Amino acid sequence: MKFSIAPALQKLVNGRRVLDVDGFLAECQTAERCGWFGAYTGEKHNGDTTYTTNPFLACSLGLAKTDKLMFGTAVSVLPIHHPVSVAEDACLLDAMYPGRFRLTTGAGYFTGDYEPFGVSLDERQHRMDVGMEVIAAHRAGKQMDVPSPWAGKVPPRDPALGPDRLEVFIGAWSPAGVRRAAHDADGWVTDPIRSGRWEQRLAEIYREECDKLGKKPRIVLFREAWIDRTDEAARATYGPHVLGYSRVYFVRGNAFNERFDPWLKDVKSPEDLTLDHALEDRVLCGSPQTWIEQIEKWREAFEPEEMLVRMRHYQGPDLGPTLEAIERITSDVIPKLR
Question: How far is CA 248 from CA 48, 255, 261, 305, in A?
Answer without folding.
Answer: 11, 9, 17, 30
